[in-house]
Specification:
Number of strands: 5
CATH superfamily of the largest domain: Carbonic anhydrase
Strand order of the largest sheet: 2-1-3-4-5
Largest sheet: 5 strands, mixed
CATH class of the largest domain: Alpha Beta
Strand content: 15-25%
CATH architecture of the largest domain: 3-Layer(aba) Sandwich
Bound molecules: zinc ion
Distance between the termini: 55 Å
Low-confidence stretches: 1-43
Number of helices: 7
Shape: globular
Oligomer: single chain
Length: about 180
């Protein structure tokens, strides 16, 4: 390559990174790379209000979609999925998940200019059981307390990292009903 263009990592997606490597390996020039970057930047524009962090639990995906639709947010939120939601973002057991969460929050802020993070835990969460070694679902009050503790801990960290972001904390039941955690 005759000329190396500065590459903004934030706007450089995994697929274009792969393409970049392929082109680089094949000996392609910057003239091939520039149009790809242009396309990526064009696709990355646009804003949305919210980012949702939820658990991966397959039982609740339709409930989550339904809940967000009811709030008028269908197709209007970024979505990070981590087992355990709030716990997944802060647990010492899976530091890579913590990093993944913050990387995605930073991307959502930079690319989509979000104003709010909605963190939604859910009851009977297998990740809470596995990571914390206790079946909290047996005691709904205790279960709400442990989720509240982890949700608030994450909210504090978000406020430190991104003081301008609003944070909303939620707990969904297996019936899809959602409680607000303050
Ligand atoms: Zn879960």
């Amino acid at each position: 390559m005759k000329e190396k263009k500065p590459i903004n990592d934030i706007r450089f997606t995994e697929s274009s990174r792969r393409n970049f490597l392929q082109v680089a390996i094949l000996g392609g020039g910057a003239f091939l790379i520039a149009p790809m970057l242009h396309i990526d930047i064009a696709n990355a524009t646009g804003s949305t209000d919210a980012l949702l962090l939820s658990c991966m639990d397959f039982r609740l995906m339709d409930n989550i979609e339904h809940y967000m639709t009811e709030r008028g947010l269908r197709d209007k939120y970024d979505h990070i999925v981590l087992a355990g939601a709030a716990l997944g973002a802060i647990t010492d057991k899976y530091p890579a998940w913590n990093k993944t969460f913050w990387d995605h929050v930073n991307l959502a802020v930079d690319l989509h200019h979000i104003h709010k993070i909605i963190v939604m835990d859910h009851r009977d969460c297998g990740a809470y059981r596995v990571i914390l070694g206790e079946d909290f679902a047996k005691d709904p009050v205790k279960e709400k307390n442990i989720h509240s503790e982890k949700l608030r801990a994450l909210a504090e960290l978000i406020k430190i990292q991104h003081p301008n972001l609003e944070v909303e904390l939620l707990l969904m039941g297996l019936d899809g009903k959602v409680e607000s955690i303050t």
